[in-house]
Design a protein that fits this description.
single chain; alpha/beta; Rossmann fold; 17 helices; RNA-binding
RNA sequence: GGCGACGUACCCAAGUGGUCAAGGGGCGGGUUUGCAAAACCUGUACUCACCGGUUCGAAUCCGGUCGUCGCCUCCA
């Protein structure tokens, strides 16, 4: 087995990943500030670390996965005021929406999903520790972190304190000792949600909650801290400063992983801003209404997580066709297995498969060999800084050989054990990437339902027309049959005449 | 102004010193099919933005040019 290597923003290199406690991994990922529905940009981070978590577990590591909800924040308060809603009620509402959306994308749930509002005591304790240790100071009920008190400030982002252009884009607060100082605790304005503190009623600053929640749940030092590339500065930089100064030692997190941003592009590939004012924000729930999760996951996983990801009009379509291709192949294997059952135990199947492959040779032997060695190639790709695009490419290699195997009529009746081995490979991809593991029937039911809904058609309508055409075909009335097929085609229905009858599916494009 | 990332075929995209430059989509040809669809086979980059350099050898390393994007302010 290859060695897992991860890019560490701290060192700006790909490093061998060695958890602090062998066999155990503690990972914290910055979740969302919950004041609106999550969009395709957020999903990149969520899916990236979902796959990281899945791969760590697949490798047998005992993972504790924490992903927070920031439910107390300026933007939440502002939005709540606009809507005349209680801030915590509003954030609670969007936490639920987020959970729904992520579940629809097939994300594994974090072990712990801490909320700021439920961690005020540990946040206050950390702020107090920072004040006690001389890293923070109070001013009019606010408490600020003094960046000059931490000599490694800027290490993660590669910035130097002196380079931070004070006042360049935001007015300098005269109460700060250094323009880079940031709020740990903000005094409450009239009527704002607040908690009591030694500095008067207030609420946490933006960065402190992650330091406090991460150390509370994972300890002073943990293995992986993840988030979007935009969080490197100032959020993660500040998290490090707060945590390491409060605990008195580092490192806070040993490996820092950051996903690249998704950018919207138009038909010509030119970048377009995604913003509410332009009305082009694409929400996860809207995407999930249109296509199965597998397609969305392929869309993201088909490029490396650190690269920028241009999201254009054809992307979803391409990914959907790829997802369909995977499941058409899986369907072939399920079909073979149905007529030539597995022997029941993995060992028996493995032994039988080897024998059958040797006897039948050709495409059967090739599939056997490719499927047998699949975990190795797949694992190497994943170990190489989570190269999901390469891992998917390996899956598609398997898809092609599977289809070739499926075309080989003489193999079908005896090749159950070989199909079983190949399905194991699909299942591996399913466990790690969330692509290819689901039984094809349920995939196609979901896909068809979603595409029918887009066309405003019902299953019964389509089936009735398909039956009519079958009658015509039975009577060898080809003209009539072709006419009916053309009509169905115009509705987006594709027919497949097979030996066992005609099946239909909705055209993806 | 500072820091950083990226530029691979018609589109998306892996590859970061050495066998034919993965994979997906598209397009052309073929097999199969009543005809199709799906599938398979096959053709689609003698070349990796451009210009120099290092090297026996570079898409991969170094320097420069052009272009795009991000962060430095809330942001996944």
């Amino acid at each position: 087995m290859s060695e897992l290597r991860l890019y560490n923003t701290l060192s700006r290199t790909v490093e061998p990943f060695r958890p602090a406690v062998p066999g155990q991994v503690r990972m914290y990922v910055c979740g969302m500030t919950v004041y609106d529905y999550c969009h395709i940009g957020h999903a990149r981070a969520m899916i990236t670390f979902d796959v990281v978590a899945r791969w760590l577990r697949e490798r047998g590591l005992d993972l504790t996965y924490v992903r927070n909800h920031t439910d107390v924040d300026d933007k939440i308060i502002q939005r709540a005021a606009e809507l005349g809603e209680d801030p915590l009620a509003l954030s609670q509402r969007f936490v639920r929406a987020l959970d729904e959306d992520l579940a629809r994308l097939g994300l594994v749930e974090p072990d712990i999903a801490p909320k700021v509002s439920e961690h005020i005591p540990s946040i206050l304790a950390m702020v107090q520790a920072l004040v006690d240790r001389g890293h923070a100071y109070e001013a009019d009920g606010d408490v600020y972190f003094a960046v000059e008190s931490f000599d490694r400030y800027g290490q993660l982002s590669g910035k130097r304190i002196d380079d931070l252009r004070a006042g360049e884009r935001i007015a300098v607060d005269a109460r700060k000792r250094h323009p880079g100082d940031f709020a740990l605790w903000k005094a409450a304005k009239q009527g704002e949600v607040s908690w009591d503190s030694p500095w008067g009623p207030g609420r946490p600053g933006w960065h402190i909650e992650c330091s406090a929640m991460a150390t509370q749940h994972l300890g002073d030092t943990f293995d992986i801290h993840g988030g979007g590339i935009d969080l490197v500065f100032p959020h993660h930089e500040n998290e490090i400063a707060q945590a390491e100064c409060a605990t008195g030692h580092g490192p806070f997190a040993r490996y820092w992983m950051h996903n690249g941003h998704l950018t919207l592009v138009d038909e010509t590939g030119e970048p377009v801003k995604m913003s509410k004012s332009l009305g082009n924000v694409i929400r996860i729930r809207d995407l999930a209404d249109q296509v199965p999760a597998e397609a969305i996951r392929i869309l993201y996983l088909d490029s490396h997580y650190r690269r920028p990801l241009p999201f254009g009009p054809t992307k979803l379509q391409d990914a959907l066709m790829a997802a369909e291709r995977v499941h058409l192949a899986r369907q072939v294997l399920e079909g073979v297995l149905a007529s030539s059952p597995s022997l029941g135990s993995p060992e028996a199947d493995a032994a039988a498969a080897a024998g059958i492959a040797a006897t039948l040779a050709g495409d059967t032997a090739e599939l056997y060999e490719l499927a047998r060695t699949f975990p190795e190639r797949f694992g190497e790709a994943m170990d190489d800084d989570i190269n999901t695009a390469l891992a998917l490419a390996h899956l598609f290699d398997l898809v092609r050989v599977t289809n070739r195997f499926g075309n080989d009529k003489k193999a079908g009746k005896r090749a159950g054990p070989v199909a079983r081995i190949a399905l194991d490979a699909f299942d591996l991809a399913g466990r790690v990437l969330g692509v290819g593991g689901r039984d094809s029937a349920s995939f196609f039911v979901e896909l068809t339902d979603k595409l029918l809904a887009r066309q405003g058609l019902s299953r019964a309508e389509v089936q009735a027309r398909v039956d009519q055409r079958q009658e015509a075909r039975g009577a060898r009335d080809w003209a009539r049959a072709d006419q009916l097929r053309d009509e169905l085609d115009a509705l987006g229905v594709v027919l497949m005449d097979g030996t066992g009858g005609t099946t239909w599916r909705m055209r993806v494009a």
